[in-house]
Design brief:
The chain is of the alpha/beta class. The chain has one domain: 3-Layer(aba) Sandwich (Rossmann fold), CATH 3.40.50.150. About 40% of the residues lie in helices and about 20% in strands. It is built from 11 helices and 9 strands. β7 and β8 form a beta hairpin. The longest helix is centred in the first third of the chain and has 17 residues. The protein is globular, with a radius of gyration of 17 Å. The mean pLDDT is about 95.
Length: about 240
């Protein structure tokens, strides 16, 4: 776990015995569960740590993350980036959202076994959760990794972010076209672009980009639209 330890030190986290146990335990459990349930295409332990753990932690150095107390991870899948961040920052609360209940039950079980106590799993479509009292515009930070094109993703995440909060979208290389395409959606949903973050990871590998946005106006009441519409008819003008 040398690269992970290096990354933890970069973001000011001491890789103590408990955190190492939680990271290795989570990795091993997800890889084992993956034999029964499709959770991840990455099953090599070293690649798992680099892609799922190290890259999830790149936002930890950002001021917007440091100031956030309540964070929602939309479309968490096997728990990324939410779980690695929760392990490192037990004082922050993480709500992990996914439309597949089976995934969330697995995450809850593993988190319980490893005593990761600041993770709450919430089953549902983001389009529905974004209209619920107690969730809508109640999070300091919304994050999402490899879920949908940015114009669609903005409609899933920004309604959940409070006024003055932030949205961090983990994207693939060569996704600049998505950023241009999503300009109208970001504006209409109450956001404004902040910057694009990259980091030189352990091993001198450049991270994938993270696009950051600030929520500076309330999201209009008509958003998010009903489930499935944001992906079928993204806001592009």
């Amino acid at each position: 776990m040398d690269k992970l330890k290096d990354m933890l030190k970069r973001i000011g986290i001491e890789p103590d015995e408990q955190k190492q146990r939680q990271f290795s335990g989570y990795r091993n459990a997800i890889i084992e569960w993956n034999k029964k349930v499709n959770l991840t295409a990455i099953t090599n332990p070293d690649e798992f740590e680099n892609k799922h753990f190290v890259e999830s932690l790149i936002i930890a150095d950002k001021q917007e993350f440091k100031e956030a107390e309540k964070i929602i991870d939309v479309g968490t899948g096997a728990g990324f980036p939410g779980v690695p961040l929760a392990i490192c920052f037990p004082d922050k609360k993480f709500v992990l959202v996914d439309s597949l209940a089976k995934r969330l039950r697995i995450i809850e079980q593993i988190a319980g076994e490893l005593q990761i106590g600041n993770v709450e799993c919430r089953h549902g479509r983001a389009e529905d959760l974004g209209r619920q009292a107690g969730l809508r515009e109640s999070f300091d930070l919304g994050v999402s990794r490899a879920v949908a094109r940015l114009a669609t993703l903005a409609e899933l995440v920004l309604p959940l972010v409070m006024l003055g909060g932030s949205f961090a979208a983990f994207k693939a290389n060569n996704s600049e076209e998505e950023l241009i395409e999503a300009k109208a959606a970001i504006h209409k949903l109450g956001g404004t672009p902040l910057n694009t973050q990259r980091m030189l990871l352990p091993g001198d590998i450049e991270s994938l980009p993270v696009y950051w946005f600030r929520k500076n106006r309330p999201t209009p009441k008509e958003f998010p639209r009903r489930a499935g519409i944001p992906s079928k008819k993204p806001i592009i003008k």
